[in-house]
Amino acid sequence: MLSTGLKCVCKLGWIGDTCEVRDPCFNNPCNNSGICFGNSNRFLCYCPVGWKGSLCELPDDTVGRTVLNPCKNGGHVFYHNENLICSCPKEWTGPNCEQDKDECKNGISINDTIITDICQNNGRCINIPGGFVCACHDGWAENRCETDVNECDSSLVKIKYVPCGIHGQCNNSDGNFSCMCDNVWSGNKCDRRVDPCDTSPCRNNATCVINGDEYICQCLSNWKGIHCDEDEDECLFHPCENNGLCVNLQGNYSCNCTDDWTGRHCEERVDSCQSIPCFNDGTCFDSLPGYTCNCKQGWTGESCQTDNNECLLSPCSNN
Questions:
Q1: What is the value of pTM for the model shown?
Q2: In the chain, where are the structural domains located?
Q3: Which of 82-86, 170-174, 267-271 has the lowest mean pLDDT?
Q4: Do residues 298 and 308 lie in contact, with contact meaning Cβ atoms separated by under 8 Å?
Q5: Where is each EGF-like domain found (predicted)?
């Protein structure tokens, strides 16, 4: 590690903080499958059974003796200075390769670099004797959870699996997938049929009726349109009788009747004599239009309201 905090990654054959030292084990000076351990310009050869010497170049004359291999868990035994030494697999350590390495705690070596984030994409590392396993989240796979699972690829499983069913299109993404659902289908896997009337598309108290994958709005008499949101001009159908004037309203209409008629459609005759329009004991007769008054003697006018000046007729004789 340099003082700047940077670290040099050396090419093969070179070691040291700045890659300035030639690796004495680069060309493997040890013969007969001996293992080289180097440090700066020095190296040692650990020889397999049957060989000895600084370079494992000499046959071992004791090869015929019985040698008990003390190395466990697949470790290989080597000689060095007449001593037995175990070369352990990377998952084991200890003098006899008897101790399990906790990779989840200490990390693993990849290309001479210690990796502590073993399980990627939030996978959980579980230490086991002689190794580790990664418990991956859904959507990730392989030894270190480094590979995205294409959930949309049905060929990945023996039994055909269609995550979005037959009513959706599957779109894969890193560690996940999403479904683009067809009309009237919803849900994470497009497995829930949508009732098109759930959104109350029909206005003004209209009735929504399911029609296959769509809907139809049954409008009240005063409305029209796909969603019953367009006013129906009822005056086009002349609903007002007896010369009543039709006035269109939003979702409705009204009739302005003449004086002689009343009712929703001006269909009821108004009794003009009900208000007693004839004065001075005149007799009222209902008629169209309006009414007529039969006045008593001495009165005249439309409503018998005018005194009749009988003197104008000179009723008095002999002056």
A1: 0.41
A2: 1-65, 271-309
A3: 82-86
A4: yes
A5: 21-57, 62-98, 100-146, 148-191, 193-229, 231-267, 269-305
Which residue matches tokens 């995205």?
148
Q: Which string of DSSP letters, residue by residue, matches the chain?
A: --TTS----PPTTEESTTS-EE-TTTT----TTPEEEEETTEEEEEEETTEESTTS-EE-TTTTS-------TT-EEEEETTEEEEE--TTEESTTS-EE--HHHH-EEETTEEES--S-TTPEEEEETTEEEEEPPTTEESTTS-EE--TT-GGGSSS---TTTTSEEEEEETTEEEEEEPTTEESTTS-EE--TTTT----TTPEEEEETTEEEEE--TTEESTTS-EE--GGGG----TTPEEEEETTEEEEE--TTEESTTS-EE--GGGG----TTPEEEE-SSSEEEEPPTTEESTTS-EE--GGGG------
Residue 155 vs residue 250, higher pLDDT? 250
pLDDT band at 176 (very low <50, low <70, confident <90, very high): confident
DSSP state string for 279-317: -TTPEEEE-SSSEEEEPPTTEESTTS-EE--GGGG----
The answer to whether 1-65 and 271-309 have equal CATH topology is yes
CATH of range 271-309; options 3.30.930.10, 2.60.120.10, 2.60.120.330, 2.10.25.10: 2.10.25.10
